[in-house]
Amino acid sequence: MTKMVEVRVPNGFSIRRIQKQDYEGVIKTLSILTTVGAVTEKQFGSIVEYWDTQKLPKGDVYKYNPYVIVEDSTGKVAATGNVIIEQKLIHECGLVGHIEDIAVGSEFQGKKLGALLINKLTEVGLESGCYKIILDCDPKNVAFYEKCGFHTAGVEMQIKANL
Ligand SMILES: CC(=O)SCCNC(=O)CCNC(=O)[C@H](O)C(C)(C)COP(=O)(O)OP(=O)(O)OC[C@H]1O[C@@H](n2cnc3c(N)ncnc32)[C@H](O)[C@@H]1OP(=O)(O)O
């Protein structure tokens, strides 16, 4: 049974899919999470277009679900994240949602926007038909995700390319 935490959009903020116009705000916000590198506005626009055209074989389901929370008065991107829906063979061609690249701008942290974003991405995944939603995170963020209704299951393992 999924225990999602109800979080309302606070007054003065909106949540929606990423658009090409979000270039600067998304890049700035993501750089809180990790190195973004030299991504041009053109590259960003092409990737947003790609995300908006990828649908799963069954039904009208987006594979990529990139979202932003925007401060209405300034148009600033306050938070960003994505839920990517994987088409599997197991579980009768089931779907799994992967929450990725979550970042809340430093000036917007502590206002429940992170929880709102996770709640929205989880809802998008479940409404798309996913039988589970998963994510990897740093141990220091476990308590945050627990407050969003997630629980620890398994261990992340990786091999990194020598780039
Ligand atoms: C799958 C991934 O992408 S993992 C990567 C996550 N991103 C990052 O680490 C980037 C830098 N950090 C951030 O962007 C933000 O600090 C986030 C996403 C971790 C949290 O976002 P915020 O908007 O600041 O958190 P929010 O205000 O929604 O907090 C909700 C609750 O979690 C708690 N919380 C938030 N962060 C943490 C934390 N690191 N540890 C413990 N509790 C936390 C809050 O105190 C709050 O608790 P309450 O409901 O009892 O008051």
TrEMBL record:
<comment type="pathway">
    <text>Nucleotide-sugar biosynthesis; UDP-N-acetyl-alpha-D-glucosamine biosynthesis; N-acetyl-alpha-D-glucosamine 1-phosphate from alpha-D-glucosamine 6-phosphate (route I): step 1/2.</text>
</comment>
<comment type="similarity">
    <text>Belongs to the acetyltransferase family. GNA1 subfamily.</text>
</comment>
<dbReference type="GO" id="GO:0006048">
    <property type="term" value="P:UDP-N-acetylglucosamine biosynthetic process"/>
</dbReference>
<dbReference type="InterPro" id="IPR016181">
    <property type="entry name" value="Acyl_CoA_acyltransferase"/>
</dbReference>
<dbReference type="InterPro" id="IPR039143">
    <property type="entry name" value="GNPNAT1-like"/>
</dbReference>
<dbReference type="GO" id="GO:0004343">
    <property type="term" value="F:glucosamine 6-phosphate N-acetyltransferase activity"/>
</dbReference>
<protein>
    <recommendedName>
        <fullName>Glucosamine 6-phosphate N-acetyltransferase</fullName>
        <ecNumber>2.3.1.4</ecNumber>
    </recommendedName>
</protein>
<feature type="domain" description="N-acetyltransferase">
    <location>
        <begin position="13"/>
        <end position="163"/>
    </location>
</feature>
<dbReference type="GO" id="GO:0004059">
    <property type="term" value="F:aralkylamine N-acetyltransferase activity"/>
</dbReference>
<keyword id="KW-0012">Acyltransferase</keyword>
<dbReference type="InterPro" id="IPR000182">
    <property type="entry name" value="GNAT_dom"/>
</dbReference>
<dbReference type="Pfam" id="PF00583">
    <property type="entry name" value="Acetyltransf_1"/>
</dbReference>
<keyword id="KW-0808">Transferase</keyword>
